[in-house]
Amino acid sequence: MRTTCAALAGLIAGFCALAVAEFVAAVVRPEAGPVAAVGGAVIDRTPPALKDFAVRNFGTRDKLVLELGIVVLLAVFAVLVGLLALRHRRTGAAAVLLFGGIGAAAAVGRPEGRLSDALPSVVGAVVAAGVLYLLVGRLAPVRAPVPGRAEDTFDRRRFVVAAAVAATASAGAGFLGRRLTSSVQAGAEASRRDLVLPVPDSPARPVPPGADLRVRGLGPFTTPAGDFYRVDTALVVPRVDADGWRLRIHGRGVRTPLTLTLRDLLRRETVERDITLACVSNEVGGPYVGNARWLGVRLADVLREAGVEPPSRGGPADQLVARSVDGMTIGTPVEAVMDGRDALLAFGMNGEPLPFTHGFPVRMVVPGLYGYVSACKWIKDIELTTFADYDAYWVKRSWSAQAPVKTQSRIDTPRPLSSPKAGRVPVAGVAWAQHRGISRVEVRVDDGPWHTARLAAQDSRDTWRQWVWDWPATSGRHTLQVRATDGTGATQTARRTDTVPDGATGHHTVVLDVS
Question: How many CB atoms lie within 10 A of CB 404?
Answer without folding.
Answer: 19
